[in-house]
Amino acid sequence: MTLGRCRPFLDLVFLLLLSCLLPSPGQSASKVPFHGVGVDYGQLGNNLPSPETSVELIRSLRASAVKIYDANQTILRALCGSGLVVAVMVPNDLLPSLAANQSAADAWVADNILPFYSTLRLRYLLVGNEILSDFASNSSLWPYLVPSMLRLHQSLRSQSLTRIKVSTTHAMDVLQSSFPPSAGRFRSDIASPIISPMLDFLRRTSSFFFLDAYPYLAWSQNPNSISLDYALFQGNASLNYHDPASGLTYTNLLDQMLDAVAAAMVAEGFPDVRLALTETGWPNAGDLDQIGANVHNAAIYNRNLVRRVAEQRGLRTPARPAAAMPVFIFSLYNENQKPGPGTERHWGLLYPNGTAVYEIDLRGRRPASDYPPLPPATNNQPYTGKLWCVVDGAGGVNETALAAALTFTCGQGNGTCEAIGIGGACFEPNTVTAHANYAFNSYWQQFRSTGGTCYFGGLAVQTTHDPSK
Ligand SMILES: *[C@@H]1O[C@H](CO)[C@@H](O)[C@H](O)[C@H]1NC(C)=O
Ligand SMILES: *[C@@H]1O[C@H](CO)[C@@H](O)[C@H](O)[C@H]1NC(C)=O
Ligand SMILES: *[C@@H]1O[C@H](CO)[C@@H](O)[C@H](O)[C@H]1NC(C)=O
Ligand SMILES: *[C@@H]1O[C@H](CO)[C@@H](O)[C@H](O)[C@H]1NC(C)=O
Ligand SMILES: *[C@@H]1O[C@H](CO)[C@@H](O)[C@H](O)[C@H]1NC(C)=O
Ligand SMILES: *[C@@H]1O[C@H](CO)[C@@H](O)[C@H](O)[C@H]1NC(C)=O
Ligand SMILES: CC(=O)N[C@H]1CO[C@H](CO)[C@@H](O)[C@@H]1O
């Protein structure tokens, strides 16, 4: 594959001159490099359109920016001439070598950033994805995070690529307390060793603290104590929250979450580091036992979000009314290879075939009344019926993959597969599919309450029909 800088297609030269080489007019006036809303372009699907088509779709959604989860050169080349502001990511596993070695950081920048700097509006370099939230396998990466950021910043400066801000992304679990918002504090395990030096770096370089914040996740874990309307930006005054310590009034859950992070930064001694929202959104579908994941709510959340951004000229919160944040919506597509519960595969604005899941104008200028009616929300109450986890037969069954999953599953838990052993009560019918039906369900019923999902690499699905019947 030939990788490298944008090819100077003749018919693109004029566009490139207009959209890339000249600084855009709004930019010098404002410290936020773009107004409007960006979109997160993830590629964890085996049925997604090409980067070229994806860029067309992103533009048709009227996004002003795009964030990708690596520095994929095919995508960066497809973005040439698009006029979109671009955020790229350094893969997590590169952190140790980048932190240890300035030449490695210089080389990464020379290979991945330099070829595109003059022709793309590259503005953000995000070093790793939610590194401080991965406890199991990746806490070993924590010590490398800030050193990698420093080295990459140094590399950019030494190669005169000064318009790019270096940062990283965080999930809400970097906080140990978030309520009331004024009591927001960083986790004690990361506050002074990692967050504090990071905030110092972000302040010195006028960069942003990038946050992935999902009111859906907060609400769906506490649907009885948080109002759905408050999470969807459509609460009335009776739902407003008054923070007793700050005296500020909150009209929605997202502002509350963002201000908890702002308060944590104040407590750490960095009141002036700006926030940016690198991911937010609402799932358009999920598993049968997942509440509130539907097209209706997803459309309302994202449409209200973009309308707020348009009205406020950037997202602003009660604690920081003067600081407009860049915003990215997660995500461009429903991605069918994301593991975890069903919602994970349904955050998209678009289906993989490019059709909109619901209409949305990311500029936020289209009035609500102008959109066609939405399907009703069918699952805004918790599902209370019985559920089973079985082989997903739709689209055919891959017996090789199923047999491997069966072996794996039967090795988990206590007696997961006893009944399908030789002489067991459910040995017959002795087929891979029948045995997998039993094993998936047996596993899921054991581990459901502790976060086990009915997924099995895409081979399983929840059902309301008792498979033993
Ligand atoms: C970059 O993205 C393209 C398009 O999806 C994909 O075919 C390619 O494998 C990716 N390259 C890398 C190095 O991940
Ligand atoms: C530092 O990185 C450069 C470029 O990737 C590599 O050639 C060199 O071997 C590395 N040095 C050490 C000590 O790891
Ligand atoms: C305000 O919202 C709550 C909860 O959604 C609702 O029960 C109440 O009727 C609303 N009040 C007014 C005045 O609209
Ligand atoms: C695209 O995919 C969606 C969801 O699977 C489907 O409902 C829709 O009909 C498809 N559209 C086209 C044009 O194929
Ligand atoms: C079936 O699954 C196996 C193992 O995961 C994989 O190697 C193979 O490509 C799959 N076959 C089809 C037709 O998808
Ligand atoms: C199996 O059961 C034992 C004893 O009840 C328990 O200690 C162990 O954690 C269980 N193993 C799994 C994988 O659930
Ligand atoms: C999210 C993430 O980056 N996870 C990585 C944690 O580390 C393991 C082993 O190094 C990787 O395989 C994961 O991808």
Account of the 3D structure:
With 469 residues, this protein is α/β, with parallel strands linked by helices. The chain has 2 domains: 8-370, TIM Barrel (Alpha-Beta Barrel), CATH 3.20.20.80; 388-463, no CATH class. 34% of the residues lie in helices and 15% in strands. It contains 15 helices and 16 strands. It has helices spanning 10-21, 25-29, 51-60, 73-79, 95-100, 102-112, 114-117, 142-158, 191-204, 215-221, 228-231, 253-267, 295-312, 399-410, 432-447, and strands spanning 38-41, 65-68, 85-90, 121-129, 165-171, 175-177, 185-186, 208-212, 241-242, 249-250, 274-280, 315-317, 320-325, 327-330, 388-391, 460-463. It has an 8-stranded parallel beta barrel. It has a two-stranded antiparallel ribbon with strand order 6-7. The chain has a two-stranded antiparallel ribbon with strand order 9-10. Helix 8 packs parallel to helix 9 and helix 14 (399-410) crosses helix 15. The longest helix has 18 residues, at 295-312. 43% of the residues are buried. The model is unreliable at 8-30 (pLDDT under 50). The structure holds 2-acetamido-2-deoxy-beta-D-glucopyranose (7 copies). One 2-acetamido-2-deoxy-beta-D-glucopyranose binds next to helix 6. One 2-acetamido-2-deoxy-beta-D-glucopyranose (NAG) binds next to loops.
